[in-house]
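We modelled the chain as a single entity of 342 amino acids. Its sequence is:
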Amino acid sequence: MFDIKNKRIIILILVVLALGLIFIWSQSNRTIYIENQSADIIDKIDNTKVSPLSGWSCVDYNRRPLAIVLANDPVTRPLSGLSEADLVFEMPVITGSITRLIAVYVCNYPKEIGSLRSARHDFIPLIQGIDGILAHWGGSHFALDKLNNGIMDNIDAMINRYSAFYRKSGMPWPHNGFTSIEKLLKSAEKFGYYLENRFEGYSFQSDDPKIKEDKVLRINYSRPYNVSYQYDMETNSYLRYRNNSKEIDKVNNQQIKAKNIVIMRVFSKQIEGPDYNDLDFEGTGDCQIYQNGTVVSCIWQKSEKDPYSKLKFLDDNNKEVPFVVGQTWIEIVEPHQKITWE
């Protein structure tokens, strides 16, 4: 009798242990399955956390763009902070003569950006189209009439209410105006501007070089503002030169490298004496996109009725051309301006 009872107890213990092991095994498998599933979901979320302007993956991908007007005069070269911009516009501010830059930042925090210069009225719809905050050192009366009446969020160094700008010693006036992303963000917050991105952004593709040779893109702005880009097949990048000299970022001593160059053909006309012109950014026009070592013909499009509409670059099927992930330069030229790619 004693043996039978012991056998029953032993069998019961074994059954309980077996059930316990089965339960532990099933829970372990289920845990592994859930962890794998979570990892897949996280990867998908991370893939959406990119700058709407460059496609760079970064912590502040959803920060509202800051668009900073920069000088292009030889005395200001090399500029500071230019290599860290997501997107850069370059355009004439006098027909057939001086050009100026607007460097737009989402991801990065360069410690110094400059030198800054004044705004023009035709900058406004460009920056409205990316829902940016415009930072500038004064402006033409055409621009200030609109900006001072609240047409868009902007931070003006001539007012400098919250000390976002400073003069840097060792550089000649008026080319010694500088700022930083940190200073601009603090100022924008005090102005009560919203700081989260609302721009739908551009679509992006991975590097996919199409040619096995180095070529040069030349943009015939008047000297000393003439620009060229040397395509480097090893990095699938376009190395920037101005007046045949390397375009260097003074902060990190790196040459400017773009992944996309957009040639945007726009009508320009003088509207007041020799100092001010007007670029017609609303409507449509011809464009070409240089990426992956090749040229994509396109049409640029921006609504004439809505200044906040997106500036689009459309292919032959009326679909937006995706940019290669990285810095993009939009080069605004006149309809018949000479461009070579050889």
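As a brief sanity check on the tokenised model: Helices lie at 2-48, 123-128, 141-147, 181-191. The longest strand covers residues 283-291.
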